[in-house]
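Case study.
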Amino acid sequence: MGDTLITVVAIFLAAILMFVFPLMSISERNDDISQLGIQTATVQFVDNIRSTGRITQNNYDSFVQTLAATGNSYDIELEVKVLDENPGKKSSQAAQDKIGENVYYSVYTSQIEADLIASDNADGEPANSGVKKLKEGDIISCRVKNTNTTIAQMLKNFFYSISGNDTYQISAQHGGVVMANGGK
Amino acid sequence: MKLQNLAVIFAIIIIPITLTLSAYIGIQIDTASLQQSYKTKLMDATHDAVVAFELNTQNNIYSENADSLRRDIDASVNAFFTSLATSLGMPGANAEKIMPYVPALVMTLYDGYYIYSPSEVTYNTKETNEQGEQVNTTKTGYSHILKPYIYYSAKYIDPNNNNYIVVNYSLDSYISVYGRIGDQIINKSGYLYSRFFDNIDEGEALKENVKYIENGQMKTKEDCQFVYYNAQKIYNIDGAWYAMNNFEKVPMNINLDSDSNGNIIDTSAKKYKEDSLAFTNWLKDTNEDGMENSTNDISSIVIPQNAKYLKYTGTDSQGQPIYQESEYEEFNDDNTKILTTDSEAADSAFNQHKRTIMQISIQDNLNNAIALYNKNSKALGTDIYFSMPKMTEQDWDKILTNVNFVSFMQGLPVGIKKFNDYSIVTSTNNKQYIGTDSLYFVQGDTYHTIFCDDLAEENNFIGYKSNDFEKIKYTVTDASQTKQTRYYYARKEYQCYKCVVNYWPGETDIEKLTSSTKKRKFYTALARERYNLDKATKIFMTNPEDLLEDLNI
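After joint prediction, the assembly is written out as follows.
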């Protein structure tokens, strides 16, 4: 009887050691590599926007493809804070020792994606030819989170579950000030 | 074998493999993320240097003086190192520890560039000699200094005789030509004529807000009329004309142009057109000023002879445009023409040649600076091998068409590699250079870019350079003798939300503008601002005789 119990425990332990433990550590390494991949891609995407001043459909598409190549699905959040200097100018003209009370108003992912679609309006409004142009002083930020459950997450959930519905394993974010006008 | 032994043996084999793999991947991840973060920090530090340069030259009334500009560049370089050191976690005096990793910094300006890199310097120190006395000795060492200004220039030599020409180029079509042809020494400078400026306004009424000191008090005059004279703004205050010298009024007693109604107007655009035409004709004219015996026609170097251009004659069956070569004709807005040899066109022979000269000059001097650094890097405390990185076509395009700050950083250890990268940041808001997207047009109480739909052609609008819309600093001393800094705007108009706050999303190519009124206003503003540019090394185009005549001498 004792022997059987020990045997069962031994087999159980062996199973864990031989299958679960290596699988967990290798899949976590996998997630680390994905993390590196998307961090690099995000930083490059945002820095490119900062130095050229434009978000193009091509750049955005290749960014999305690079993210998808890691094998996971991601949720991308873009935010552009557009600098409006008119309130600062109005307050400076009223009180001449005050400067810089500028306002940033935000434009989010779905609005940016709508601007990027190349199209001509029915009334002949200017065509957004697949480019969103920013000016110097605007702030761009990008945040990427994974939305599927990776293997490491599944294994971890098997042993202990993390409560909350916003759990993500892989994320990257970057942002900065745009340094050039998105001219021609 | 018992099952558990097998399992334990398996675990003993797998665990070290996993640990090694994790460690290796961890190092790779650190390397890649550190490299990205250094690249971002380098770009941020370069941007800080550009912002410092713009702020300093905006408020520096002596920025057209070459020595004063050197001080501004020194300040920008300082801003660069401080910003880089702070973001790398080495604030304060440790900024000097970063210097060995920066082999060169390049600041490209209107007609040349500065390089900031290590060079041999001599300095005096006191040393103790064998007798134990303190004596003065001179030593040589290496430290980072701002090298002298280098112009974009090229020398053209005729091998058959002793004729030679040196041409100094700039970012737009301003060139300086000097040399010897036959017995004549020649020395002239000016803008090259372009057909785009054929159709411009004869005179404009310019206005802006101005502050001046009168009886110890700072007064403001709104919408004060001004004209440009010798690249300075001359204001009409209470019927008399004054120049501003640090808010002090300087009376100017000069002859000004007026229009048919007797109102004083600014005719810089017209003068630009006439001067550039005179200069270009002088270049092409081989029967004037001792160029009779010239076997090297200067104009063939800077402007191809018998300028031809491509005329748009319609579309073919697939809707592709057809162009036909034809001779010079009057520039007519109704025909769409592409001028391939006009100096304003980006792909003209003049511009391509000029860009080659500029690129060769920058590359050669940068190579020399970095090679010198390599030879003596031990004296600077590092033993890294520095090399000039290969820059892409887009990078060169940016460098050769704008005022830029280019920074190189090499040798910082990142994980298993050494960091080696560069960063280029353009300065768009400065007094050095007027690009085609630096002009804003005032209509009512907003200002627009030329492409904006809200800019109605029927109403009158005038263009000013973007630098005129920035705030200007001044100091006042109040009753308790404390100095206070105040700011005012020379122009009171606000930005248009369609085209300035949100960058105009439509077409931004000036050649594709269809409205002839807009084109005329645009080129008038461009001609006027170019004619009155604050160049640090500009040779004034006013002839001495005209200057004496204007001053009523």
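Observations recorded in class. Residues 286-296, 328-339, 536-545 of chain B have pLDDT under 50 and may be disordered. DSSP finds nine helices and 23 strands in chain B. We will return to this complex in the next lecture.
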